[in-house]
Design goal:
Rossmann fold; 2 domains; ten-stranded mixed beta sheet; 9 helices; globular
């Protein structure tokens, strides 16, 4: 059964059913798993992120049924066109507090201040964290949202990297956990970030690291609170060409002098011939810093050479997550029925 949107996103045709990656999900007691997506991505990635999570959840749900509700934080600058889309397709964040969701997925956004607590959406984001702990079975915190979550929950600050961590990285599985059921000992996962989290500080505060990248960065980690919190520094939801589009965007920012450093090519993502093509583009850009150069970016040529090496593992992890939510929901219902019968 497909994932369905709890709002009308006209023009999307993404909800066809897919084979279940862990066998048939348990039928949710209420008919659906109700999941909220708090999509805080900037305008250029907002609708792409909707599509990415819809696609990934559809693959992971298999024979189960998931209903997805969309939210976003106030305080993030929006163009008129994107604001109209939000007004049409998203629920107001104030309606979240009285909703009855089984789970939540929260994305990050590009920070505008050095300190996350100074971001204009900080108070609403921390309110979502506190609400999710008491009102969901499990919640996923993606990239910057993961950094914000651990800062709020345990005071763990992220640390700035000398270079952007961009590419597809081999990750080692470190721990047995229900979310890792059937996941190979080594998987590949996309990353795109300027910051990292010290693993020793996570483990000292009771977090459990499930996967670690080849560069010794934490990839996926969890913490059991009143809700099961799941954190990703990487992006299992990314589509095949997402990193390439981000690389093109970063080149444009360099050419327009928004940044002073030409971006490094994504690691573990492109073949040798593509490296040569993009190296020639870089040399031209460094010789002549013209904004017109992105027009010459060989998107079709390079995109046709890319392979998605992480999708199966991503789908498996999310299938395990959905199965866990189903199982916990069933157990809670059984406990409630026993209490009613004993009353």
């Amino acid at each position: 059964m497909p994932v369905t949107l709890n709002s009308d996103l006209s023009g999307y045709d993404l909800l066809g059913s897919a084979p279940c990656l862990r066998g048939e999900l348990l039928a949710p007691p209420a008919g659906y798993l109700d999941i909220g997506l708090v999509n805080n991505m900037p305008d250029g990635a907002l609708q792409t992120t909707e599509r990415q999570f819809l696609g990934l959840l559809t693959e992971a749900a298999g024979g189960g049924a998931v209903r997805l509700s969309l939210y976003t934080l106030p305080g993030i600058p929006r163009s008129d066109a994107i604001q109209r889309h939000i007004d049409t397709s998203y629920s107001d964040i104030e309606s979240l507090w009285d909703s009855h969701l089984d789970a939540l997925i929260v994305t990050g956004t590009e920070p505008r201040t050095p300190n996350l607590i100074d971001e204009p959406y900080w108070d609403n984001l921390t309110r979502i964290l506190d609400w999710a702990e008491h009102n969901t079975i499990s919640s996923v915190w993606s990239c910057l949202a993961a950094h914000a979550a651990i800062l709020h929950l345990d005071g763990i600050p992220r640390r700035r990297l000398s270079n952007k961590r961009s590419g597809v990285f081999e990750c080692a599985r470190l721990s047995e956990h229900p979310f890792m059921d059937g996941v190979p000992q080594r998987i590949r996962m996309p990353h795109s970030r300027w910051n990292d989290i010290p693993e020793n500080e996570l483990t000292a505060c009771g977090y459990r690291v499930l996967t670690r990248t080849e560069t010794a960065d934490v990839d996926m980690f969890v913490k059991q609170r009143k809700s099961s919190f799941v954190f990703f520094q990487g992006h299992p939801e990314y589509e095949t060409d997402t990193l390439l589009r981000e690389y093109r965007r970063d080149i444009r920012r360099y050419l327009s002098q928004e940044t002073e450093t030409y971006p490094t090519m994504p690691h573990g993502y492109i073949d040798a011939d593509t490296v040569n093509v993009l190296t020639a583009l870089r040399d031209r850009a460094l010789f002549s810093r013209r904004e017109a150069l992105p027009v010459d970016f060989p998107m079709a040529l390079v995109g046709g050479r890319l392979a998605n090496t992480w999708r199966w593992a991503a789908g498996r992890i999310y299938a395990n997550w959905l199965t866990y939510i189903c199982e916990q929901k069933e157990r809670r219902l059984q406990k409630w029925q026993v209490r009613v019968e004993c009353a």
